[in-house]
Write a structure and sequence with these properties.
This protein is an alpha+beta fold. The chain folds into 2 domains: about 1-80, OB fold (Dihydrolipoamide Acetyltransferase, E2P) (Beta Barrel); about 90-239, Recombination protein O, C-terminal domain (de novo design (two linked rop proteins), Up-down Bundle), CATH 1.20.1440. About 35% of the residues lie in helices and about 20% in strands. The chain is built from 6 helices and 8 strands. It has helices at about 90-105, 115-130, 135-145, 180-190, 205-220, 230-239; strands at about 1-15, 20-25, 30-35, 55-65, 70-80, 160, 165-170, 175-180. The strands form 2 sheets. Strands 3-2-1-4-5 form a 5-stranded antiparallel beta sheet. Strands 7-6-8 form a 3-stranded antiparallel beta sheet. Strand 2 and strand 3 form a beta hairpin. The mean pLDDT is about 90.
Length: about 240
């Protein structure tokens, strides 16, 4: 079946000396994998390697294999050329980290148009705005909502956040949890949109502590999820 859809690049893997495998999140069919034959060899025209940087937004056409496996692209074009995402060192570090998070979080062929719209708009916002130090914290919170484990405020709205239950409690949990400034910051981020991330002002220690907790939160709630290798790069850039 011939499919034409919007797609966001999540991850690429070298297949041989001249080819790549690209994993993308598509609007029409969820997560899909493509074999890009000969894309690394020098040639003019055609589908280019530069189209497949992490989080690039594309319009693609391909013959879909209903039984899974690798698909082959027929046509590719960039929908939204980014202005800063790959040239600004902080934005590029965020792209590498978040693309790895998304790639590890999404299952094959789980279609969610609202999730696609969120990813599309979030990275357009990141590209065009400058106050981005807290972007990844809010992004992870919003992503957890689509994945089914968004933190929630019950009647007991205490100072501890239980990472296993996803709830705030008034007594210290036996399970893994956060407290103090990190828990308070998490509360402030709940329900916020990207336009509001200029506030609150966060010191480096609290930002790093909450980020580590959020990664741990994903590990606890997603089967097979592992800590992203790019986390250390993000720490180096923002510390």
């Amino acid at each position: 079946m011939l499919i034409q859809t919007k797609a966001i690049v999540l991850h690429t893997l070298k297949y041989n000396d001249t080819s790549l495998i690209a994993h993308c999140y598509t609007e029409a069919l969820g997560k899909q994998s493509f074999l890009l034959k000969g894309i690394l060899s020098a040639r003019k025209g055609g589908i280019r390697k530069a189209y497949f940087l992490p989080m690039t937004q594309l319009e693609i056409q391909f013959q879909h294999k209903n039984k899974g496996g690798l698909n082959f692209l027929k046509e590719v074009k960039i929908l939204h050329p980014y202005q800063q995402l790959y040239t600004d060192i902080k934005k590029n570090a965020l792209v590498l980290f978040l693309s790895e998070i998304i790639y590890k979080s999404l299952k094959e062929e789980e279609t969610n148009p609202l999730l696609y719209e969120f990813l599309e708009n979030a990275f357009l916002w990141l590209d065009s705005n400058e106050d981005i130090a807290n972007f990844h914290l809010l992004f992870l919170l919003k992503l957890s909502q689509f994945l089914g484990f968004y933190p929630h405020l019950d009647q007991e709205n205490g100072p501890y956040f239980n990472l296993e239950s996803g709830c705030f409690t008034s007594s210290t949990p036996l399970e893994k949890h956060i407290k103090g400034n990190s828990a308070q910051l998490l509360k402030e981020l709940l329900g916020m949109n990207f336009a509001g991330i200029k506030r609150p002002k966060i010191n480096q220690h609290t930002r790093r502590e909450l980020l580590e907790a959020m990664v741990n939160y994903f590990e606890l709630h997603l089967l097979g999820f592992s800590k992203p290798k790019s986390l250390s790069i993000l720490h180096d850039v923002f510390d």
